[in-house]
Write a structure and sequence with these properties.
Elements: H1 3-11, E1 27-34, E2 37-44, E3 51-59, E4 64-74, E5 86-87, E6 89-90, E7 97-104, E8 108-118, E9 121-131, H2 141-168, H3 179-216, E10 224-230, E11 235-241, H4 244-247, E12 254-255, E13 263-268, E14 273-277, E15 280-281, E16 287-291, E17 298-308, E18 313-322, E19 328-329, E20 343-346, E21 353-355, E22 361-363, E23 368-376, E24 379-380, E25 383-384, E26 392-397, E27 403-406, H5 414-424, E28 457-463, E29 469-479, E30 482-493
Parallel strand pairs: 10-19, 22-30
Antiparallel strand pairs: 1-2, 2-3, 3-7, 4-5, 4-8, 6-7, 8-9, 10-11, 11-16, 12-17, 13-14, 13-17, 14-20, 15-16, 17-18, 21-23, 23-24, 23-28, 25-29, 26-27, 26-29, 29-30
Length: 494
């Protein structure tokens, strides 16, 4: 077991929300290609450790005769030994859909390595996932009652068997044991009762320690603090990771994802303002600074995506109050240059993006299709890459218990994917060589198109939401050098 990861999980205490690469969402989706075979991979993580992950693979090509899957755990310095590969079985009654369950036994960053067999050809792909504990499973009352009754029967039945065995085992048939032996059998019964009770007491204490350790392993993100400074010219957001384990260098350092050391989303409390910006890290690896976007005063919620050298990715969160007139004055802080990919909206009435088939309400756990069209002056917009992707989307629940950062390739961290694929799948195309806008009508058309989408379409993999309530999704694309951001509201119902 990776002690670093364990210490990481045990020691980090910031919020009360359960976190993973996103917040409150335990599934991972990837849409892309294995070689030239287009596919969509869905991994439903168990939320408990060890746990059984559900894996589904939809292949958008014929003649795929076999798929195998193998988990590979990534430690801080080395890779652990991988178990034998499992077969991903075809789903009866479905075309080109495969599914299996995969046991993941330890905390940390995993690569889910798949082999796609099409005739004599074999293509490979790896999907990064983070196995963390996000919940505690409980027995229902009926099951616990039945187990309790059976334990009582076992407890008292065992004591009685030992008493009778001691009293009668050495006696001849039809011969009553002596009074002395009967008396001693009761002494044996008392000793057995004490011994069984001690075993149960010790077992309960052992289990309580195991349960406490598991409760402590419920993942929460790195502890951080946020301050707003003014250096005499600019308002600045300063984020510092103050978690003890991070400060002590017991957690692996960060690596860029999509060329950025941190992706920060700022959402106003009324959900009317949003900024997607990219802080710069100072010489102190714990401190990140970025110019404050021109947002109105108010309460803001921060979501900060980071990826570690192990491939472990997650989202830090925090909340701050912005008041231009009451920022902390600190002229010594040097403002970093604004990242050219930074973008924001303030009370936008943007209408250039339309949600194809979008509905005001969706049933919980049903697929929500994420297909969008962008227009300029009534014509399909020519879309270009935005931060190495065809588009970005952020989905947020009204109580902020769910945060999802979505791309046309899915929810995975590209940096994590590259870490695992470096050895597993040599010779893959680098992300700078391709910009993926999603499948158009589940076809392979326009997968490559000189890094431009001429039809104005950007598609994200469908998602499933379990929690009912109101949601907002912000879709971001780039056209003619301009980042277009538009918000859509919807509800998830039973």
């Amino acid at each position: 077991m990776n002690r670093t990861i364990i210490k990481f999980i045990i020691g980090v205490i910031t919020t009360t929300q359960f976190l993973s690469a996103d917040i409150g969402h335990s599934s991972v989706v990837y849409e892309g290609k294995a070689g030239d075979i287009p596919l969509r991979i869905f991994v439903q993580l168990p939320g408990v450790v060890p746990g059984l992950a559900d894996i589904s693979v939809r292949v958008f090509a014929d003649d795929v005769n076999k798929i195998t899957v193998q988990p590979q755990k990534q430690d801080r310095d080395t890779k652990s030994k991988a178990p034998p590969a499992d077969i991903v079985e075809p789903v009866e009654g479905e075309k080109n859909l495969f599914s299996t369950g995969l046991w993941l036994m330890d905390y940390g960053a995993y690569s889910i390595n798949l082999k796609i067999y099409q005739g004599q050809r074999v293509e490979r792909i790896s999907i990064p996932v983070n196995l963390i504990a996000t919940k505690v499973t409980t027995m229902n009352k009926l099951t616990s009652s039945i187990i309790g009754i059976l334990l009582l029967i076992l407890f008292f039945g065992g004591i009685k068997l030992i008493r009778i065995g001691y009293r009668d085992s050495t006696e001849l048939p039809n011969i009553e044991p002596s009074k002395t032996k009967i008396k001693r059998s009761y002494i044996v019964t008392a000793v057995t009762l004490l011994l069984f009770s001690a075993v149960i007491y010790g077992g309960k204490n052992w289990w309580n320690k195991i349960d406490l350790a598991y409760q402590q392993n419920i993942f929460q993100s790195l502890e951080n603090k946020v301050e707003i400074f003014n250096n005499g010219k600019d308002d600045l957001i300063r984020v510092e990771i103050v978690d003890e384990l991070w400060v002590q260098d017991r957690i692996s350092d960060l690596i860029p994802d999509h060329g950025k050391i941190m992706h920060m989303y700022i959402v106003s409390d009324d959900y009317e303002q949003l900024a997607h910006i990219h802080p710069v890290r100072s010489d102190d690896r714990s401190v990140f600074t970025v110019k404050m976007p021109p947002l109105d005063n108010g309460i803001f919620h921060l979501y900060m995506d980071i990826t570690h050298e192990t491939g472990f990715s997650h989202t830090m969160s925090n909340t701050f109050i912005y008041d231009r007139e009451h920022t902390i004055n600190n002229p010594s802080i040097i403002a970093p240059e604004r990242d050219p990919d930074d973008s924001w909206i303030i009370n936008s009435d943007e209408t250039r993006i339309s949600w194809t088939g979008g509905q005001p309400a969706y049933n919980a756990e049903n697929d929500i299709m994420m297909k969008f069209k962008v227009s300029n002056n009534g014509k399909p917009a020519v879309l270009e890459p935005y931060i190495s992707m065809g588009g970005h989307a952020v989905l947020l629940k009204d109580d902020r218990s769910v945060f999802i950062h979505l791309h046309p390739i899915g929810t995975i961290s590209m940096a994590s994917k590259e870490i695992f694929e470096e050895e597993y799948n040599q010779g893959i195309l680098g992300q700078e060589e391709i910009c993926f806008y999603g499948f158009a009508d589940d076809s392979t058309e326009n997968y490559f198109n000189n890094n431009l989408s001429q039809n104005g379409e950007v598609n994200f993999p469908s998602i499933k939401l379990v929690k009912t309530g109101n949601y907002a999704i912000w879709v971001q694309v780039k056209s003619e050098g301009e980042v277009i951001t538009q918000k859509f509201d919807f509800e998830v119902i039973l």
